[in-house]
Amino acid sequence: MFRIDRRLLQNFDWLSFATVLAITLIGIMTIFSATRQPSEAAQSPLYIKQIIWMFIGIAGMTAFLSFDYIWLSRISVHLYLAGILLLLIVMISGKTGMGAQRWINLGPIAFQPSEFFKLMFIIMVAQYLSLVSGEIDLIQLLRIFLVIVFVPFILLFKQPDLGTGVVILLIFFFMVLARGLQKKALVFLLIASLVSLPFVGNIVWSGLKGYQKNRLIAFVDPEADPSGIGYQINQSKVAVGSGGFFGKGYLNGTQGPFRFLPERHTDFIFSAFAEEWGAMGTLFLLSLYLILILRGLDTARKAKDVFGRTLALGITFMFSIYFFVNIGMTLGMMPVVGIPLPFMSYGGTALLSNFISMGVLINVRTRRFSLFY
Amino acid sequence: MIVIIIGFLVVIMRLWQLQILQGAELRKISESNRLRVFGVPAPRGIIFDRNNVPLVKNTSYFCASLIPEEFDFRNVPMLAKLLKLSEEELSRKINRKGQSPFTPVRLKEGLSFNEVSFIEARRSDFPGLIIEIEVSRQYIYGSVGAHVIGYLGRLSPEQSQNPAFRDVPPAAFIGQWGVEKIYDQSLRGTAGQRIIEVDAFGREIRLLKETTPVKGQDLTLSIDIALQKEVEKAFEGRAGAMVALKVDTGEVLGLASAPSFDPNKFAKGITSDEWSGLMLDKKLPMLNRAVQSQYPPGSTFKIITAIAGLEEGTLSDETAVTCRGGISFGKWHFGCWKKGGHNTVMLHRALVESCDVYFYEAGKRLGIDRIHDYATRLGLGKETGIMLGNEKKGLIPDTQWKAEKKKSPWFLGETFVNAIGQGYVAATPLQMAVMMQAVSNGGRVLQPTLLRDAAPALLSEAGVRPSTLDEIKRHLAGVVNEPGGTGGAARSALATVGGKTGTAQVVSIRKDSKFLAEKFRDHAWFVAFAPVEKPAIAVSVMVEHGGHGGSAAAPIAKKAIEAYLLPDDKKKELINVQN
Q1: Touching check for A224 and chain B: CB below 8 Å?
Q2: Which residue in the set A227, A238, A244 is minimally distant from B29, CB to CB?
């Protein structure tokens, strides 16, 4: 089963892989530039770590290519339960970062289980949806929601990792929509969300931590305090805009290395990139992500079974949501939620889980011809 | 699919807006993020006295500042204790709205060396706390000469609008009073500039461009600090003014106004309490009495009446008048200061003993308009043109003035009063010194200047015969040196002094000053020149409510003359600064 044969190599999705690799390398370059120490000889080692994680990621991707993805459907429940367990461990003994517990310490490495959980969650939802025949009605929707979505959402909300919580909700609803929802259920869903919005909003608001509230306030009115709450957003816009058409040139950016830009190598890496490469660079980068997403949708269309299609859609949705929320945030169009840009932002766990997700996606495409197996 | 495409289009439109449409503007913001322009103040020119004694020093002082971004606000009470500030004041200073949290906020200025080392030792407990160095001006002789030297201050709001101060850094100190103000342009030099690349924490990363400041030009004043110091000491807490002029050039050798103020208080930024304290002080220490106050000159004015009489031929050396302690004119009685009278006196004794009745007669013979003519020719009744602020021009009345201002004819009784320097006549101590100078240098009225080696500027020629002036000088020498002379207190072993006392009535009661409350006491005047044989210095002294000129003002004039004529080594002893 764990064998890479010639047919597999022939059908391997080189385009997706090359796109993802290009984005990762651009990311590493930008991490190097954004974290460089302008006045000191010693350079930040972050980019080297990211290179190492890239290789680990490629290895992980290869591993998830080597077996038929159908196998994932069989272990989906186990994976899902393991994922819930990890989230529980984080809650109990997590390492705190930025006021949120998201990490588990494994000796020298700390990793974020929520990163992996997303994939486990997508596999679980895909498995469930593949077993449903016909359009999903209201009862089924509520059942899926309560069984699969509710528990992890609460766990993530409590961590608190609001970003990932909202992302899995969105992934879930997109996957259900793509699978096909009864009109009645859809209307109910819309009405229910509209009616409950202020109510839920209130609960969510009171459950938010101070920094999370500040981010929302800053989004609504970034000028309220340009140097405090709205500072990040403003500096990000300044960084992107100051790139102009041609950019300031690689290693000539100032917003990042001089630390005007917060989270310059993680959540706001796009701004650091845009400052140095300008509109030309951002258009190039956007087209890479467009290729990635369109190719993912194409993979879903060509998948040989419902599970594969739903799985591919889920992963593509995940990348899309991350991409749009992150870019929207750096361009001041969305509130600041701690969501990284896939394959670009610094972060080992995220990079590994993204490569693994990519491995599953390519797996679905590579094994689209049921004939060969 | 469509949703994805639309999403991309939205992102691209936003990028277009930020990078293409607002690109230039945002590029500017990112530049201003990164670049800081610091003004580097030029060392201010040093001010010297006429013997090249430095009067000011440029010193540095320390300030405690805070970068709010790095500060933990829970530490406010501890920091307040360390800096000896109240917690409210500290929080108010830190929470200044509308400024980048990376810009240091000035917490306390003018720290003592002990305070600095104390703060430095605890600095690691307070991230963001920094010690900054500022350049300041030290006035070596403190309040001595403060009214001439002046002081520094921050740009006032009106000044910062004025294009003349365009290249002055906003926080810089500039001359706001006295010589510091008059010659500010050349003293302050040209500020330099440092353009520095900084990171978000305001840390310097590298120097991009630097222009070095050009030091301000030094200035040598005509002031003799030894004279100045002796005179100000001699006022002993009384209010008044003294002006000493170099007879042949018009250089101001000394110009004092008592009480004075300490310009060092201004050099580090005066607090509003200290400022209002100075402004509300009943003794008016900020008033430069030498140029901004005018008083009736009293009997010192008799010099002018005498000159006018001699020149006009209404008076001669031999003119004799009998004084019986006063004369009656109509229903009025005009008394002489000496109740018993002077008996029959001629001009010499009349000046030496300052007989009032003699000069009533002299005034009657001249008429007010001729007195006005000579007073004006000797520099009274108009500004001398010294550049110290708000100079008063005094008042020399004549019939025309009376008709215009008082809408009434001139009375002969008024001539009596004005002929002896009372009534409407008013002059500043500076004007009286200029008059004395013109009398002693042959009639040349020179513009007083505060700079040494300045070319003498002739305001006017008095047009008085030298023989008349020589005669007057002989009489004035008698005032000081003859038995019975009113100016005996100015007699000096160093040089023959000539002078004239004056006692200007504040209220019209002839009563011995010691029985009167101080504010009703007479103003004491003394004008003098020395040496009589070859005059070098002319002095005028006025002591407010000092009583008699001979006892209150003459000793101060003597101090001024002696300090000026002292040999250099003795002078050095006088100006040795104790502190």
Answers
A1: no
A2: A238
**CA A241, CA B15: separation in Å to the nearest integer?**
8
Beta bridge partners of B537: B246, B530
**Ranges under pLDDT 50 in chain B:** 509-511, 513, 578-579
pLDDT value at residue A227: 44
Instruction: For residue A134, give the 3-state DSSP assignment.
Output: coil
Residues of chain A with confidence (pLDDT) below 50: 1-2, 98-99, 225-227, 229, 373
Count structural domains, chain A. Answer: 1
- Interchain CB distance below 8 Å, B205 and A38: yes
In a domain, A162, yes or no: yes
CA distances from B448 to A57, A258, B100, B426, B456 (A): 89, 59, 51, 19, 8
- Provide the residue count of chain B: 579
User: Would you say domain B225-260+288-575 falls under CATH 3.30.870.10?
Assistant: no
B-proximal residues of A, 8-67, CB under 8 Å: 38-39
Tally A–B CB contacts below 8 A: 103
Q: Of A258, A278, A320, which is closest to B19 when you measure between CB atoms?
A: A278
Contacts of B513 (CB under 8 A, 6+ apart): B521, B522, B547, B548
Contact between chains at B19 and A238 (C-beta distance less than 8 A): no
Confidence (pLDDT) at B203: 65
The answer to whether the CB atoms of B11 and A240 lie below 8 A apart is no
At what angle are helices B429-440 and B302-312 packed, to 10 degrees? Answer: 40
Does any domain span residue A183?
yes
CATH of domain B32-55+140-221: 3.90.1310.10
The pLDDT, as a whole number, for residue B160 is: 75
Return the CATH architecture of domain B61-138: 2-Layer Sandwich (3.30)
B1 touches chain A (CB under 8 A): yes
Q: Would residue A219 count as lying in a domain? A: yes
Identify the domain containing residue A28 by its residue range: 6-36+44-368
Classify residue A241: in a domain, yes or no. Answer: yes
Q: A225-271, pLDDT tens digit by residue?
A: 444 546 677 788 888 888 888 888 888 887 777 777 777 888 889 99
User: Which pLDDT score, from 0 to 100, does residue B534 have?
Assistant: 94
Residue A99: its pLDDT value, please? Answer: 47
